[in-house]
Amino acid sequence: MSTTESLIKAIGDNPLPPVDQWNPQLCGEIDLIIKADGTWLYQGTPFTRHKMILLFSRVLKKEGHQYFLVTPVEKVAIKVEWMPFTIIDFEIIQQAKPVYRFFDNCENSVTLTEQTQINFSHYQSQQLPIIQIRKNLFASFSRSCYYNLLQTASIEQQNDTHQVCIQSNNLNFCLGEFSER
């Protein structure tokens, strides 16, 4: 049975299968890379079928610093340049208090309600915000989405440092900081 057939059989109709409960032996590595811009490549060629990206994204697992595609019986290593997901859009839900909801390139959505959901990651000599999609899997922000998000942010001064922040669910989230020189 091919890896793809094994994935389809293992997933069935489950939106997010229990990959954290699957611990098969490593079967090797496949030439699949998720680029920093969210492009998925197989043997150097971009995926043309978005449904394949969605299928593989549902069985993505991270152990330590390594990423894997897993089923109950197979585990193959893949490469991820930076983050496996990319935030491509967001909306502000107007409830009693504004709440941000983010959407990524693999049809995941995450509502920003807890302080631990936004972190920073070092990439290309910069500290950039990332957002948790599930467990230890994070998404970076596409450039256009990040610029749109900055338009909704406020700037808060603390001594000589300015923080760019958004408020969601009555919590303050820092997206970056800069100093006046």
From TrEMBL:
Pfam families: DUF1285_C, DUF1285_N. InterPro entries: DUF1285, DUF1285_beta_roll_sf, DUF1285_C, DUF1285_N. It comes from the Bacteria. The lineage of its organism: Bacteria, Pseudomonadati, Pseudomonadota, Gammaproteobacteria, Oceanospirillales. Residues 17-81, 84-175 form the DUF1285 domain. It comes from Aliikangiella maris. This is DUF1285 domain-containing protein. Signal peptide: none annotated.
